[in-house]
Amino acid sequence: MLSVAIITHNEEENIGDALESVKWADEIVVVDSFSTDRTIEICKKYTDKVYNFEWLGFAEQKNKAVSMTTQPWVLVLDADERVTEALKNEILKTINDPSLKEGYYLARKNHFAGRWIRHGGWWPDYTLRLFRRGRASFSKEKCMSQ
Predict the structure, then answer these.
(1) Rounded-to-integer distance, Cα 59 and Cα 107, Å
(2) pLDDT band at 104; cut points 50, 70, 90
């Protein structure tokens, strides 16, 4: 019922924890842009759906990853993000609800220099991350990834 789409490039420091946090999903799709570190090796421990494409920009790369998913629901995750147990439970409850919406915004916790930034408009940082496959896409104007 749920695919996770992740884009990567040289994320060996982060990707293992990100993938570990979503290993419960029905499908994980990783679109890499020719990493030169251990990113691909780590990803292949969690999924056989690891693909390499030239870098197209954040929006197009995320759209490419989403287009390769097969489940009715898609969660888009950055390599430095984690799904907590509470969020996992909320996602599972949400996608199994008969009164579903087409998509959901999730509040991200942004960190800088190892600290959670709670003020100055950084919290909550709502971004569309959970949606029905085929019902959402990323654009340059709306894709604010680092």
Answers:
(1) 19
(2) confident
Q: Of 15, 10, 11, 3, whose CA–CA distance to 82 is shortest?
A: 15
Q: What is the pLDDT of residues 71-84, one digit of tens each?
A: 999 999 999 889 99
**What is the distance, to the nearest Å, from the Cα of residue 110 to the centroid of all Cα atoms in its chain?**
15
Between β-strands 73-78 and 125-132, what pairing exists: parallel, antiparallel or unpaired? Answer: antiparallel
Q: How many CB atoms lie within 10 A of CB 95?
A: 17
3-state secondary structure at position 64:
helix
Residues 6 or more apart in contact with residue 80 via CB below 8 angstroms = 11, 14, 18, 146
> H-helix or E-strand containing 90?
helix 85-95
Amino acid at the residue 143: C
Is the distance from CB of 17 to CB of 71 less than 8 angstroms? no
How long a stretch of residues is the chain?
A: 146
Taking the C-alpha atoms of residue 144 and residue 21, their distance in angstroms, rounded to an integer, is: 22
Report pTM: 0.85
For residue 128, give the amino acid letter: L
Give the residues across from 111 on adjacent strands. Answer: 116
